[in-house]
Design goal:
Elements: H1 35-38, H2 64-76, H3 81-95, H4 97-100, H5 110-128, E1 131-132, E2 138-140, E3 143-150, E4 166-173, E5 178-185, H6 205-210, E6 212-219, H7 224-227, H8 230-237, H9 242-252, E7 257-259, H10 260-267, H11 282-287, E8 291-294, H12 298-306, E9 316-324, E10 337-339, E11 342-346
Parallel strand pairs: 3-4
Antiparallel strand pairs: 1-2, 2-3, 4-5, 5-6, 7-9, 8-9, 9-11, 10-11
Helix pairs in contact: 3-5, 8-9
């Protein structure tokens, strides 16, 4: 065992089992409360508070072209799931964790960050089947639309030739775990007076308030390596083999969603999925420590939900240490599932380590 490994049974990572699922991004026009705001909660993008404005943008109701583009994009992707997956895929392609071991935006080179916008633009065109534009990136509802991506808040750089054009502004951050997309008609009044050496300008306060958000604070598929403590990530990558690193990942990222991309980043091997599967992978090797790995099988999802864990989505895993109910005194009301003729519940720090049952297939 590594010296940095937490005691057996101690929950590691973030236990999100008691937290509500994020509200998917929805069409949010300036001045229109989001579903979360209507319930008295937070409806502003994390880190994008300066983009919120209680009043409608001047001239927005008189822009039928913007309204038509917004309606078409909402029709193509009502809940934003396809857009979110496209953004996630573009970021993962840029990081190329399977071959580089990178998992954070700040690990990219400057030129790679510049290329992010192109990858997001292409990914969205494929995911939403958007036609090429005449002069700009896309043709949507008969209008030319340019796509601009920024990893940080308000970081879109608008070129001089975009004056008067429709912009699809996309922002996403692994640190925040969210993404957003909105439309804006760029005008001189919406842009900062000074630009960079290429004469590109950022949005001013008026411009930020004028963005018509199609999806605000939509959940971006979680990057478990971002959520883990730095000492845990360092302990994972310090191990010499891909199998050892994957095992350690599932020991330390218990009760968190772990994507295939994260597994590939840790394994850094072509056959990275083999490091998880039964038949010699982490599922077999960690069972002796009482740890089971739930996957995206329907049965696994039901078992995880019955235990109060996050349900793994497509291409995701959730690991957790289990304990037999008959050996966990004083926890008769905890959620449990029946496996191999016994009742099993989520292990606590005081529960003894014993082999976990195999999940049914």
């Amino acid at each position: 065992m590594n010296a940095g490994r937490p005691p057996a049974g101690e929950p590691v990572g973030r236990d999100l089992s008691g937290e509500p699922e994020p509200i998917p991004g929805q069409l949010v026009l300036p001045g229109m409360p989001s579903e979360r705001e209507a319930e008295g909660g937070q409806g502003i993008l994390p880190g994008l508070e300066d983009l919120a404005d209680p009043g409608p943008p001047p001239g927005a109701p008189e822009d039928p072209e913007l309204a038509a583009v917004a309606a078409e994009l909402t029709k193509l992707d009502p809940d934003g799931a396809r857009t979110a997956a496209a953004i996630r895929g573009a970021l993962d392609m840029l990081l190329d964790g399977q071959h580089t071991g990178r998992y954070r935006w700040d690990q990219l080179h400057k030129t790679e960050k510049t290329h992010a916008g192109t990858l997001v633009e292409i990914a969205l065109a494929r995911a939403l089947q958007l036609a090429d534009g005449t002069a700009l990136d896309y043709t949507i509802a008969g209008a030319d639309v340019d796509c601009k991506f920024s990893y940080r808040r308000g970081g879109w750089m608008i070129p001089p030739e975009a004056d008067g054009q429709l912009m699809l502004l996309v922002q996403a951050s692994d640190e925040d775990g969210t993404w957003s997309a909105g439309l804006l008609r760029t005008t001189a009044e919406n842009l900062s007076p000074a630009g960079n050496r290429d004469h590109k300008r950022t949005l001013n306060e008026r411009g930020r308030a004028a963005v018509c958000w199609l999806h605000a604070r939509g959940p971006l598929q979680e990057n478990a390596l971002i959520r883990l403590a730095e000492r845990d990530v360092a302990a994972v990558f310090a191990l010499p083999s891909g199998q050892q690193r994957v095992n350690e990942l599932f020991r330390r990222a218990q009760r968190m969603r772990v994507s295939r991309t994260v597994v590939a980043t840790v394994a850094m091997q072509d056959d990275y999925m083999k490091r998880v599967r039964d038949g010699g992978g982490a599922r077999d090797q960690l069972r002796a420590e009482g740890i089971v790995i739930f996957g995206d099988y329907a049965g696994d999802q039901m078992l995880a939900g019955a235990l109060g864990l996050l349900r793994p989505g497509p291409g995701e895993f959730v690991s957790a240490r289990l304990a037999r109910r008959d050996g966990a005194a004083g926890r008769e009301y905890d959620r449990s599932v029946r496996l191999d003729g016994a009742d099993w519940l989520l292990a606590g720090p005081a529960d003894p380590v014993r082999p976990a049952p195999a999940l049914p297939r």
